[in-house]
Amino acid sequence: TQQLVPKPSPEARRARPYRVSSADRSERKGIVAHSLEDLLLKVQDTMMLADKPFFLVLEKDGTTVETEEYFQSLAEDTMFMVLHKGQKWQPPSEQGTRYQL
Amino acid sequence: TQQLVPKPSPEARRARPYRVSSADRSERKGIVAHSLEDLLLKVQDTMMLADKPFFLVLEKDGTTVETEEYFQSLAEDTMFMVLHKGQKWQPPSEQGTRYQL
Fold first, then answer.
1. Nearest chain A residue (CA) to B76
2. Nearest residue of chain B to residue A71 (CA atoms)
3. How many domains does one find in chain A?
4. In a domain, A3, yes or no
5. What local confidence, expressed as pLDDT, does residue B100 receive?
6. Which of A5, A46, B50, B73 would suit a FRET pair with A82, their CA atoms being 20 to 30 Å apart?
7. pLDDT tens digits, residue range B16-35?
């Protein structure tokens, strides 16, 4: 009998590891996620962001990551940065001495 | 039997990730697109450009990207910049301290 092949659900996507940094680069966490939505939920949980709205950018250059499509194009182990509304990405060099040694 | 090989539709082209910067480099977004037309539509949507006409240049040197052919020759992850009519591309160095600290 013929059977429809179901389109893989987002949950079926392979979960991959990422790193997520706070805006001031003082804190970084490793998080495994299978989708952007999943990552956003886990970031909210583990980085204790309470209910303040936030978004994710690439830590290296501040590129905003808004769509699942773009998220899926990124390599595993990509480093993200959490920004709250009104916060701006800053290049690492200008924060060179602020790694809280 | 002979069969016509259909020319791949634009949608059949592999969607690839790009980055798109605002003219002042204060904002960057990651966007997946399969053609220049697709990218232009998504830029208009996600960067809230309303109805002001705009065009795309290479962020690194201001090269205008006008044709699908040239667009397809570019590597994935290429960084574009959105310019409105009358705006001029500026090299990053002159904006070095303008990352909105």
1. A73
2. B30
3. 1
4. no
5. 44
6. B50
7. 999 999 999 989 999 999 99
